[in-house]
Amino acid sequence: MHRSIEVRQAFGPVVEGEALVSEEGFSPRYDLDRWTGLITKPGHKLEGASIVGKVCFFPTAKGGIAAGWAFYDIKWKKIAPKAFVFGVTNPVMVQGAVFAGIPITAGWTPHPRGVVKTGDWVRVDPARKMIEVLRS
Amino acid sequence: MDLTAEERAILAGSRGEAARRALEYQIEVGRFWGAKRLVPVTNAHMMGDIEVMGDGGLEFLRKEAESGARCAIPATTNARCIDFAHCERLGQDAGEVAKERKLIQYLRRMDVVTTDTCINYQTVYQPHLGEHVAWGDTGTVIYANSVFGARSNFESGPAALAAAITGRTPEYGFHLDECRKGSFLVELKANLDDLADWGAVGKLVGEAHQDYFAVPVFHGYHRTPAADELKHLGAALASYGSMGMFHFMGVTPEAPDSIQAFQEKIVITEREIDAVYSRYSLGDGDARLVVFSGPQQSLFEMKQLASLFGGKKIREGSACFVTTNGAVLAQSRALGYAGTLEAAGVTILEGVCFYILQNLSPMREANHWTNMVSNSAKIVNIIGAHRFNTILRRTRDCVDIACTGQLR
């Protein structure tokens, strides 16, 4: 069965990668170890997971202005994810992702729950505003 | 996106490679948000220090400065991660300190005014009603939108720098009338006599509405709030709720004429405020670290702290930090506030925020700090990434805790 999610807003080139699906929001400042790419915030629902090379699904964006440099920083350190897929995002996440050249999307129909799970292989196509599950 | 002749010329290289790149970047961000055009801005305020940007960001700034990037409008810097007068004593990394010095040189070469303050709205520049600016951190943005009626989105470091170079920013979010309308009501029936109480209001409202585009409308308060009170309210709303704007009936310039049309209501009384304080506890740790920071202290906050700390001493084994900017510190010295605080054993840090101090986690470990007590709801929220347990207390209680080591 072909499974896909439409997104409302999107930036970046087409990328494919392994999905990391979170039920909790994300901030590269509050939740991420910016030297290993591991989510280290105690109690985060993905605590211990690595975002490196993943297509990361987060329902919301957390955090303030400092997050704007953080994506460029993790890209520089070669620990960036392939793409960020947000339910709801904020300007800082978008400014940060565009600055780092990391694809980012916001707004999803349907909700990824039931469509994509962690470990699935997905394609993010910002120009078509489409995310497809290629293998699960 | 509709571009002016000047913008098309910039894209063709009329103002150099750095301006061309900056504008291309802004257009991409604007497209994401559906911006129809760019809007001229008069002022930029950017976050840029080695702790937030790392080596990659430093290299980017070096190339920008060397390729001739220059600010087209007045641009200032937010609080940074190193106070050069204190870095050795704080055990900050010498290599990172050297990078921070370089970073400041690159910014100055681009004509950025390194004010190193997160209270630019109190001490540097106060935009007027309807004035478009490009500011960050979040506390500066919510104050600009709400109290001045100026117009800014949250602009991260790279975005604010791009705006400084091109003199414009994509027109979306709080630049547009439709995003500035109130979305729900908050009735303030509490006394709110301390700055921490205003932060507690921000926490209560922000946590319940985590949405950049939610705009609370406060009403029913029994007196006129002061600038420092609105500062703590805004900083906490932005921190807990990611909010960029609020209205305050009878106080802020774009508050609605009437509150009749609003459906959803929150009422905040003494009980809700008391409940905020009662949720914090020491856990297994102690109360040996008290911080007045995030945002930096205004002159009146310095005056109040001096009056509360006068004749007292920080308890042996405890530490108390106050952060402010260079201008406020200079006046605080002239007026004797700084001397009073230092005589009590308070460490005053200039041009920094405690939250982004370089090497903060190792500093916490070296000092065996587990808890951080503060009167700022914002810093209590954000410093958890450095694995502090945090406790919000009223200003007078914070001073008492610093001097006794006993949590009240």
Q: What does the model show?
A:
The complex is a heterodimer of chains A (about 140) and B (about 400). Chain A has helices at about 65-75, 90-100, and strands at about 5-10, 15-20, 55-60, 85, 105-110, 120-125, 130-135. Chain A is an alpha/beta fold. Chain A has a single domain, classed as 3-Layer(bba) Sandwich (Glucose Oxidase, domain 1), CATH 3.50.30.10. Chain A has a seven-stranded mixed β-barrel with strand order 1-5-4-3-2-6-7. In chain A, helix 1 runs parallel beside helix 2 (about 90-100). Chain A starts with a strand and ends with a strand. Chain B has three domains: about 5-170, 2-Layer Sandwich (Aconitase, domain 3); about 180-275, no CATH class; about 285-405, Aconitase, domain 3 (2-Layer Sandwich), CATH 3.30.499. In chain B, the strands form four sheets. Chain B has a five-stranded parallel β-sheet. A four-stranded parallel β-sheet of chain B has the order 8-7-6-9. In chain B, helix 3 packs across helix 4 (about 95-110), helix 8 crosses helix 10 and helix 11 (about 300-310) packs across helix 13 (about 335-345). The longest helix of chain B has 17 residues, at about 50-65. The model of chain B has no long low-confidence stretch (mean pLDDT about 95). At the A-B interface, strand 1, helix 1 and helix 2 of A face helix 2, helix 3 and helix 7 of B.
| Residues in β-strands, percent of chain B | 5-15%
Give the CATH class of the largest domain in chain B.
Alpha Beta
Give the CA-based shape of chain B.
globular
**Secondary structure: helix percent of chain B:** 40-55%
For this structure, what is the CATH homologous superfamily of chain A? Phosphohistidine domain
Strand order of the largest sheet of chain B: 12-11-10-13-14
* Biggest sheet details of chain A: 7 strands, mixed, barrel
Q: Give the number of domains of chain B.
A: 3
Write the element-wise H/E pattern of chain B from the N-terminal end onward: HHEEHEHHEHHEEHEHEEHEHEHHEHEHEH
Largest sheet of chain B: 5 strands, parallel
Alpha-beta content class of chain A: alpha/beta
Q: What name is given to the CATH topology of chain A?
A: Glucose Oxidase, domain 1
Distance between the termini of chain B: 56 Å
| SSE pattern of chain A | EEEHEHEEE
Structurally, the number of domains of chain A stands at 1
* Integer average pLDDT of chain A: 94
Uncertain segments of chain A are none
Helical proportion of chain A?
10-25%
List the quaternary state of the chains.
heterodimer
Largest interface: A-B, 37 and 41 residues
- Return the CATH architecture of chain A: 3-Layer(bba) Sandwich
